[in-house]
Amino acid sequence: MTTDLLSGLNPQQREAVSAGEGPVLVLAGPGSGKTRVLTHRIAYLIREMGISPKHIVAVTFTNKAAAEMRTRADKILGGYTDGLQIGTFHSICARLLRIEADHLDGYNRDYTIYDTDDQIKVMKEALTELNVDTKKFSPSRVLFAVSSAKNELISPAEYPSIARDYFGEIVGRAYPIYQDRMRRNNAMDFDDLLMQTVILLRDNEEVRFKYQRRYEHILVDEFQDTNTAQYRLVKMLAAPQYNVFVVGDEDQSIYAFRGADYRNVAQFRKDYPEAHVVLLEQNYRSTQIVLDVARSIIDKNKHRTPKRLFTEKEGGALVAIHEAYSEGEEGEWVVDKIRSMIRFNGYSYKDFAVMYRINAQSRALEDAFKATGVPYRLVGGVAFYQRREIKDIVAYLKVINYPGDTVSLNRIFNVPGRGIGDKTVQAFHSWVDARGKGYEEAFKALAKGELIPISGRAGKSLVEFARMIINLREMAFPSDMPSFADGSTAQTPLTVIYDEIMASTGYIGYLTEISDTPEQVTERMENLKALRGLIDSKKDLALNEFLADVSLSTDADTNTTGGDPESANNVVTLLTLHAAKGLEYPVVFITGLEDGLLPHSRSFTDADEMAEERRLLYVGITRAEQHLFVSYAFRRSLYGESMPSIPSRFLADIPAELTEGAPTKIKGMADRQAYREMTRWDSDSDDGDSFARRSSSDNGSSSSGRSKIIYFDSAAGRGSSNSSGGSISKRTPPPPPAHPPSKYKVGMHVYSPKWGEGIIIDVRRSGGDEELSIRFSSAGTKTLMASFATLRIVNQGE
DNA sequence: CTGATTACGATTTTT
DNA sequence: TCGTAATCAG
Ligand SMILES: Nc1ncnc2c1ncn2[C@@H]1O[C@H](COP(=O)(O)OP(=O)(O)OP(=O)(O)O)[C@@H](O)[C@H]1O
After folding, report:
1. Contact A361, A700 (CB under 8 A)
2. Among residues A34, A70, A109, A337, which one is catalytic?
3. Closest by CA position to A347, among listed A338, A355, A334, A356
4. What separation in Å is there between the alpha carbon of A32 and the centre of ligand 1?
């Protein structure tokens, strides 16, 4: 039943998939089937070349991509994939390090992975120890430098020699101390996972040979986003056969900020001059228009080798550019568009993705989705594992796993509150240090009541805490159970451990204490329930494995609103441009195309970073299969203050004939100054001829375009000082003359930012104002005062 | 040591 | 604007 692996592929793709042994480099633009080729290559190796799946390792960029690739490979091969390893560099390294922990200097198999917050705490301690002013040299800045060093495989000892200034000198001093503290906590950061693996493979021949044999074939997706450490790892594992198959696109390199260097692609060609290079030129994803727009953006980058890319999807919809008044209206516009395309063009929610440059932008978008009940899912971001309640419980798990994890320990000493303050904690730590026998032993001694280092109430609490930890640990790893030959011990099921933590800490009660609203309590309970569900789904993992899994997953935070739960998968996707890499959607919205946002202001001063911003937009655009919508807001609030914004300079690079909508007028408007002159809408003048008004509406749709939206600003709106001046009734201004109160009629469809869409069911005069009864589709019936309600008329009703 | 109040600072992007 | 770190009273 040899379904031909090559049948669904074009000649170039076939060439790549069926290449012989040795290095292969597939270089191609977006949507040309690189990932597909990689997946088929795995199948080809197994089925046609007779390679055992366990001798193959494929590296992807996210866990999600890994899961997807595994599913696809399974499908092609009909499940014959036992032992096939697919994962991110980080997860592959984490596993390797756990298995080879005995060869590591100062770590054991129960090592934990610290997230950014944990790292900051450790770095702060290190800087304090050095008497460095953490105001002047923030832990996160120093960490960034350390991280960059690790990505370049620069050790603490080597760092000082590359330090060029005072800051570098500080880093040079902090790095070794930080590293030492990490080791004492049996903790690694993300970069350590890579660097320690490289060091281990480099220095330990036996281990190196083992993995070179094990990973006979190595495949890397998104190769342009590897950093020095990762590439080094690839090279070491690929030797001595050099069966290394990498796919990438330099124009899609968007992770330079974490050390990725697309020049690794060029380096690959130098390192393996014999490499079989394959170029793919047909794009199967997007329309010609989308590709043209993408090209117009990326062409402006210097020092790139243009790639040929064609599609059979000629023509296509023009890219619609929309100017919204604010981020709030930008969100409303997106939602309106989505709803109308679903209603009239037969799309469903899952066909849409809304993208943005920074996570903070998601909020306004979410508000719009919530208000209308359009179901959505927010991808990535900080989300789940950063939540306080989750971090608390995970910290308990970490301490049970390894009591010497001081960062986790410090977190839970007084959570829930048990009267163990900072002083007590410090005293405890120095006591443990002085004894020099480690934390587990210290807790045991304390629990037995042998020694009490601290007097009084706090001391008593500490003893109780110690007992609890010892009991939990004993419960998790019963000592009367036999140890396995490999040194690991039998372990109580994870769910039982979880339940036991909840019970012995009384965490639920604590939760109610720390929450200010009942809703918050429910939300937090929900989160804990989700955590337990997650634990349950991985219940056969060892505790240390589970913890590693948790640390390495940035898993999409699923957040569905409005829609019926049955169609949980049919939702609109909200995600950052970074998170969008590798994905594709029929309809794509890219929001916030403003100078300062995209390109981000932090990139203004650096040409390389500006080029990366451009690539980021390029990646976003090329996610679109059929429709591309681009928007920017006229006014955007940052730090709570609404600030004027300028449309992205990138917009001017898109040829006018490929676009429709608002900013056709800024095409070719290279002179920013002149542009600014035209857009002095922040002045008080109400001359009705500003750029804002002229360039608003895009197409005939009544729901989009500022000029067609009718607003009734609330009386308490901006500008009126509410201190000494006049009574409330005095401050109620007459409604705008153009739109007298009688505007509202029974049967009208209106939209309120707060309640969503509704129908007016009653209008009553009341003094100089009107009382409106509105039945909202999702919020029930409300009665609002016309002058105080911010309503938009959706349509006049019949 | 706790709890509350205030002050400040932060925003790219992610494993 | 919002969340957390620092500060202070009890
Ligand atoms: N030979 C082919 N025939 C039909 N469809 C194809 C072919 N090759 C690829 N595709 C389709 O094209 C789309 C893009 O493929 P894929 O995601 O592998 O491209 P890619 O090069 O990895 O893209 P990107 O670099 O943007 O992530 C997918 O939907 C895929 O199924």
Report:
1. no
2. A34
3. A338
4. 5
Q: How far: A425 CA to B1 C1' (Å)?
A: 12
Whether CATH 1.10.10.160 fits A112-185? yes
A348-367: pLDDT as tens digits: 999 999 999 998 898 899 88
Considering A12, A13, A14, A35, which one is annotated as catalytic?
A35
Q: Is the CB of A31 under 6 A from ligand 1?
A: yes
* Residues A443, A254: Cα–Cα separation, whole Å: 47
Report the alpha-carbon distance of residue A374 to residue A438 in Å, rounded.
54
Pairwise CA distance, residues A448 & A466, whole Å = 9
Residues in chain A: 798
CA terminus-to-terminus distance, chain A = 62
Q: Is A615 in the pocket of ligand 1 (CB under 6 A)?
A: no
Which amino acid is residue A764, in one-letter code?
R
> Is A222 a catalytic site residue?
yes
Q: Can you give the distance from the CA of residue A639 to the C1' of nucleotide B10 in angstroms?
A: 9
Q: Mean per-residue pLDDT for A736-752?
A: 56
Same fold, A112-185 and A310-381+563-674: no
Q: Can you list the positions of beta strands (E) in A96-139? A: 112-113
Spell out the domain ranges in chain A: 11-101+193-284, 112-185, 310-381+563-674, 385-540, 748-793
A529 touches strand B (CB under 7 A): no
Q: Which fold has domain A385-540?
A: PCRA; domain 4 (1.10.486)
A480 is catalytic: no
- Ligand 1 center to A30 CA (angstroms): 8
pLDDT at A63: 86
**How close is the Cα of A586 to the center of ligand 1, in Å?**
14
- pTM of structure: 0.79
Q: Is the dihedral of CA A232, A234, A237, A243 positive or negative?
A: negative
Q: Which CATH class is domain A11-101+193-284?
A: alpha beta
Distance A686 CA to B5 C1' (A): 43
- What is the arithmetic mean of pLDDT over A318-331? 91
Q: Are A794 and A751 in contact, with CB atoms under 8 Å apart?
A: yes
Dump pLDDT digits (tens) for A519-569: 778 878 888 888 898 899 888 889 999 999 888 876 554 444 444 445 568
Contacts of A41 (CB under 8 A, 6+ apart): A16, A17, A219, A245
Give the three-state DSSP class for A56: strand
* Cβ of A638 near strand B (distance < 7 A): yes
Mutate to test the pocket of ligand 1, among A6, A35, A36 (most ligand atoms within 8 A of CB): A36
Query: Which nucleotide does the CA of A640 lie closest to, via C1'?
Result: C1
In this prediction, residues A110-139 reach a mean pLDDT of 87
**What ipTM was predicted for this assembly?**
0.92
For domain A310-381+563-674, the CATH class is alpha beta
